[in-house]
Design brief:
Chain lengths: ~55, ~230
C-alpha cells in the first residue's frame, strides 16, 4: 500500500514541471495572440495576422 | 527537472521566435502593409483607375516592428513551453528527443498550431471580412488542441484505434466548419490575400521546424548540464 502511494506520488511529481510549462505556454499564447484589450491588440497586431491568429 | 524544462523552452522559444520575427518582417510585413493601403481606402481595388501593383510602402518602423519582434519571440516561447512539456512526458515514456528528432516535433507542432487552424480559417490579411472574433478564437483553440492530441496519437499511439481517433480529431473541426462571415466585404485584391496566406504559412513552417530542432537540442544540453551538476 505504502509503496503504491509512493510510486503514485513519484509519477505525479514528475509531471508537475510539464503541467506547469503547458499552463504557462497556453497563458503566454493567449496574451500575445488572443486577448482583445486595445493596447495588447495594437502592439501585437502585425504578429497576430502573420501568425494566423484570429485578429479583429 | 523544473529548471531544465523552463530554461530549454526559453532558449528554444526566444531563438526560434527571433528568426521567425525577422522572416516575418522581411516576407510577410510588406504584404500586410500593402493590404493596409486598401483597408484604409488609400488604394481602391476596381475603382475608377487601375492601381499599380507596386505602390510605395512604408519602410522599417522601429516601434511597430520592434514590438512585432518582441511579440513573435513571446509567442514562440509560449509554443516552446508547450513543446518541451510534451517532450518531457514523451521521454518519461521512453522516447529519445534531440536536435535531429526535434525536426519531427517541429513539423507536428506546425501542423497542430498553423496548418490545422489555417486549413479552414486561412491566415487573414488586414481588411478581410470575418465572423465574430470570439467565436473564431474558440474554434482556433479547439482545432489546435484536437490537432495537437492527434499528432501525439499518430506519433506514440499503438495500433489502429489510436490512429483512427487521430484521423477523426484532425478532420472533425473542418467538417463541422469554422465561423464564417455573413457577407464578403474585403477591399483587398485576392492576389495580396493569397500571397499573405502563403507567406504566413511558409514562415510558420520554417519557424516551427527550427523551434523543434532548438527544443530538442536545448532539452538534451540542459539535461546533460543538470546531470553534471547533480
Amino acid at each position: 500500500m505504502n509503496t503504491q502511494t509512493n510510486t503514485l506520488k513519484l509519477s505525479v511529481a514528475r509531471f508537475i514541471p510539464a503541467v506547469f510549462a503547458a499552463v504557462l505556454g497556453v497563458t503566454v499564447i493567449s496574451i500575445t495572440g488572443h486577448v482583445q484589450a486595445a493596447a495588447l491588440h495594437d502592439a501585437a497586431h502585425d504578429v497576430r495576422h502573420a501568425t494566423g491568429f484570429p485578429c479583429h | 527537472m523544473m529548471s531544465r524544462v523552463i530554461i530549454s523552452a526559453l532558449f528554444a522559444g526566444a531563438l526560434a521566435g527571433l528568426i521567425a520575427g525577422v522572416l516575418q518582417l522581411v516576407f510577410v510585413q510588406p504584404v500586410l502593409l500593402h493590404a493596409e493601403l486598401y483597408e484604409s481606402g488609400e488604394l481602391v481595388h476596381f475603382g475608377a483607375q487601375a492601381v499599380s501593383a507596386h505602390p510605395e510602402l512604408p519602410g522599417f518602423e522601429p516601434v511597430r516592428d520592434g514590438l512585432s519582434l518582441i511579440f513573435t519571440m513571446l509567442t514562440y516561447t509560449g509554443y516552446a513551453l508547450l513543446m518541451i512539456a510534451a517532450i518531457s512526458i514523451a521521454e518519461e515514456r521512453g522516447a529519445h528527443v534531440d536536435g535531429r528528432t526535434g525536426l519531427l516535433w517541429g513539423i507536428a507542432g506546425f501542423v497542430a498550431f498553423h496548418l490545422a487552424p489555417g486549413f479552414t480559417l486561412a491566415p487573414e490579411v488586414p481588411g478581410v471580412a470575418a465572423a465574430d472574433v470570439t467565436a473564431r478564437q474558440i474554434w482556433w483553440f479547439a482545432t489546435a488542441g484536437s490537432a495537437a492530441v492527434a499528432m501525439w496519437l499518430i506519433g506514440f499511439g499503438q495500433g489502429w484505434t489510436a490512429w483512427g481517433v487521430a484521423t477523426i480529431l484532425l478532420l472533425a473541426p473542418h467538417i463541422i466548419g469554422a465561423p464564417e462571415p455573413d457577407t464578403f466585404t474585403g477591399p483587398v485584391p485576392t492576389e495580396i490575400g493569397a500571397l499573405f496566406a502563403a507567406r504566413a504559412l511558409g514562415v510558420g513552417l520554417a519557424a516551427w521546424v527550427l523551434l523543434g530542432c532548438f527544443a530538442g537540442y536545448f532539452w538534451r544540453s540542459e539535461g546533460a548540464r543538470e546531470a553534471r551538476t547533480t
